[in-house]
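Fold this sequence, please.
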Amino acid sequence: MKDLYRQFRDFFVSLQLTVVLLILSLLLVFVATLDQVNLGIWAVQEKYFRSFFVLWRLPGSDVPIPVFPGGYFIGGLLLLNLVAAHVYRFAFTWKKFGIQLAHAGLIILLVGELITGILQKDSSMRLEEGQTKSYAESFREHELAIIDRTNPEYDEVVAVPEAVLADQKSLQHPKLPFQIAVKAYFSNATLQMGDPTARPGLPLATQGVGTRIQVIPLPLTYKPDENNLPAAFVEITGPAGSLGTWALSPIIGMPQTFSFEGRTWELVLRLKRHYMPFSITLHQVTHEKYPGTEIPKNFASRVQLKDEAGHEDREVVIFMNNPLRHGGLTFYQYQMNAAGKMSAFQVVQNPGWLLPYIACVMMGIGLTWQFGYSLLGFIRKRTATSTAAAS
């Protein structure tokens, strides 16, 4: 039993494991960089770096086969390797303090990347001057929103994630007096005006704008300058029977309205919303250029931050390299249309955002300490040799 434990320990402590993992990580980065031309940056991150194994599917089938260790697998083993080396190999001494501190910084850096990969959320908030919002919208994920507009003071919203729509099942929510059946779902599709019956094989919309448009399924795109726009056919069924089938797509834009049991409802397939306990109001956008040129000098947005609890009510100027941080969210100046008086912010939720800074400081101090300690030892040795030679 002790021999088995020793072999297990020696495997995770070994320098050979460190070298192999570093080589594997270099190969992973190299292959992922080449494949980025085909998949785009987001798909590459999910396929290569935020996975335990890189999967390859057999041609003509959906059977996944692991062909290479992914970022989580390599990073996790490297993290265990570094921690084990610290516990079993590195005894604390001032001579090796710099190396130990640098390794500890590397461990924190790996932990920070793991937290970022799992918990970070990116979204955007677009505002026109005078507009107020308390939510941000996802860059890529969508949702089906069923909105009860009956109450003039507020809207009652039930949001169905895109992944649930993809299962194409019937849905029943406690807040809805009817059932929703997903008749068809397409991860990417476009629309064009025309008679829907001219395209057999798809469900027919009997309500809304879907009775006048055709839904054209498209293959998934991985290009960084293109987005996948889903489409779905949903049927609403009440106790007395079907209320009709709607064709939904973000391309339609505006919600489609229907009435049921004396209440007004809306259906819309939109970007997924992330609601916040505070609101942002855009007061002014500023776009400065270098004199005599069209080269941008500065983008700035003057906003009002107001907390629903009444703890915050202040003006903030967001500009390049000067984000707004509040409530665990960071608002970066992302896009601007000064002529249209519109500004867009990238909203990032990353609980581990501070860890890379701490890790870099620790590694910098550790390397500086190690270099300085070795330099002082070299100087003392040279001085002692010169003194001995002179005497």
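Residues 355-390 form the longest helix (36 residues). The chain has three domains: 2-119+354-390, 123-132+278-349, 136-274.
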